[in-house]
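Provenance and format

Records in this collection were gathered into a single text stream. Each protein contributes a sequence line and a C-alpha cell line. The two records reproduced below are adjacent in the stream.
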Amino acid sequence: MKFIIITGLSGAGKSQSLKILEDSGFYCMGNLPPALLPDFAELYLQSKDKMSNVALVINTRKGNFLNDLFSSLDAIDKLGFEYKILFLEASDKILVKRFKELRRPHPLSLDGRILDGIEKEREVLDEVKKKADYIIDTSNFTIAMLKEEITRIFLEGKEGKNLTISIVSFGFKKGIPLDADLVFDVRFLPNPFYIPELREFTGNDKEVRDYVMEWEQTKTFVNKLTDMIDFLIPFYIKEGKSQLVVAVGCTGGKHRSVTIANVLYEHLRDSGYRVIPNHRDCISYKGI
C-alpha cells in the first residue's frame, strides 16, 4: 500500500501531481483539511473495498494548519499507518509568474500582493518541509518532467535524493541567471560562431558538439568540472539544499555553453541525480 500526503507551496504543482497519480491508478482526494486526516485514514483501513494506493492534497488555507496537521500525523502514527509526505516548492520568481499568468490571487495574500502571500506560506510550511520524505522543486519543470519525477519516485521506486539540479546554459550578452548558485564561463573555448557552416547550428546539434568537444582544453575542462561538481553535490545534499542551479555561459548562449551544459547534464543524469537541462538563450522553454 502507498499512502501519499501531498503538500507544499501554492502554485508549485500539487494539483498536477495529484492528477498524475490519479492517472496512474491512485485513489486521490484534493484539499483535505488536516484535521480530517485521521478520520480518513481510519475509514480507509476499515473499508472492505480499500484500494492499494492513495494520494491526498492537504489544504493549508483553513484553520490552525500546523497544529491540525502535526496532531493528525501523530494520530495516524499511533494507528500504525504508513505514509509518505511529498513537499512541492518553487522559486518566488516562478511562483509570482504562475499566479500572474493564471490571473488569480495568492490564497494567503491579504493585501493582494502575491509575493507577500508566498513569503507567509513559506514561513507556515517551514516545519512541514522538514518532515517531508520527498522534496521536489518545480521551478524549471515542465508537466512532462514532473510526471517523470513522480513516476520515478512512487511507481518505479527510485527515490534518489531531495535535490533538483538545474543545468542552465546562457549568454553573457543577456546577463547571468539571477538564481545561479554556480557559474562557469566557457568563453575561453574555441567558438563555432566563427565557422560559417556551424554558425546557424546550436550546441544541441551534433556538428557543433563535435567541434567544441574535439579540443584538448575542452576535454580537460569537462573532466575538472565534473570532478568538482561530483565533490560538491553530497555537501549540498547534507546541507539540506533542495535546488541547485549550475549556470554555464558563453557569449551568445547558443554553442559552447549549450554543449558543455548538455555534457554536464548527461554526466549527472547517468550518476543517478535528479537533473533538468534548461537552455535559456537557445530554445523556448515552458514550465508547469
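Adjacent record:
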Amino acid sequence: MKKKFDHIGIAVRDIDSSISFYTNVLGGKLVDHYRSEAEGVESEIAIIDIHGDRTELLMPTNNTTSPIARFIKQKGKGVHHVAYDVGDLDAALKDLEEQGIRTLDWSLRTNKHGRRLIYLNPADTEGTIIEYCDYPNQ
C-alpha cells in the first residue's frame, strides 16, 4: 500500500502566537482555524499551508481531558504527530492488523474536512504518534 506524507501536527500553548510565527516568519497561509470539542479532540486547530505542505497547529481547549493537553504536560509543546495519506483507510487497517500493529481505536473519526483518520499506537511505532488518513470523498 502506497503512503504519502499528508501533514504534521504541532502541539502549541498559544495558537495565535503560533499562527503568527507560521504565517509571518515561515511564509505560510492560514487555510482554516476552528475549534473541535469532539471527544478525543478538544482542541483549537489552525491549518497552515506552506508551499503545498500542511501543518496543523493544535491547542488544547480542555486542560483536563484533551489529549493535546496530556501530550504537552508529558512532553511539552512541539511535534505531536506525523500523518500519512494511505489512500484507503479500511485496507490500511487490515494491513496493520496483519502486521500486529495496534491503533488507538478511540481516535477513529472523520474531521470537518472529510478526512478519515486514526492514530497508531505509539508503543508499536518507536514512540512516534503516527496518523493514518484518507479522503474518501475526494
